[in-house]
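Entry 14: structure prediction run for DeoR family transcriptional regulator. Input pasted below.
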Amino acid sequence: MNSVRRRNEIIMDVRRTGSVSVDELMLAYGVSVETIRRDLRILDEKGIVRRTYGGAVKREQTTWDMPYYDRMQLNLERKEAIAREAVLLLEDGDSVFVDGNTTGLVLSRLIPADKNLTIVTNSAMVALNLVQKKGKLSVYLVGGEVGEDGMTFGYKLHCELRQYRFDKALFSCMGFGTQGIYYSKWEPLQIAQMMVEQSNHLILMADSSKANRSGFLFGMELNRIQTLVTDEGTPHDMRESLRETVRNLIVTSGDDQSER
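Run finished. Output tokens:
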């Protein structure tokens, strides 16, 4: 296992259990104490975990979000499974909004070129993935100031988005629970709330690392969302509660089978 995947799994362990020890991680991954200490030091420096004597614990800062390129590598296989399920929800003739989150970027790689879709996005990278397919897709990039993650933001973006109406909108969040979804920043929150009014079908793509996780900003209640696509890492008891709130819950698994 390479270092990036090992660190991603350590992040998931910390988020799931609240803490990890150096000894446990050495046994789990079959590496030296120096390797594990280096992993924990790197994750601490990035603000993802907090190192302790003999291990690390979870950081609970509601205003902090992991850098975009670090998030891109985190839970990648589960994001791909979620994106594959989300693609199946798209029908020929749909007008679709895809936000620039990391799962949206994965999704853009999987949308078939021969699908007759009109897609609007606030991500230059999502738009590039789509236009390179040279198929039936019509792609629109909404304007605004461009951030280092390739996403547009600001007043111009909001003005342009208000002109559209969508059949479906696919987006993500910082965290979700039975009460609703959460964000650490205003920009994705405002876009998600805008989609409530401008889309007929809201599709939330959220992997299990976001389950039972809150943020500084409350986005919306779950009953505003038509479909939630997550993975089997989301706790079973939470899934049962989600089924009572979300109209359509899709839970992906590692064997390409899905629970609906």
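Notes: The mean pLDDT is 87. Will compare against the previous run tomorrow.
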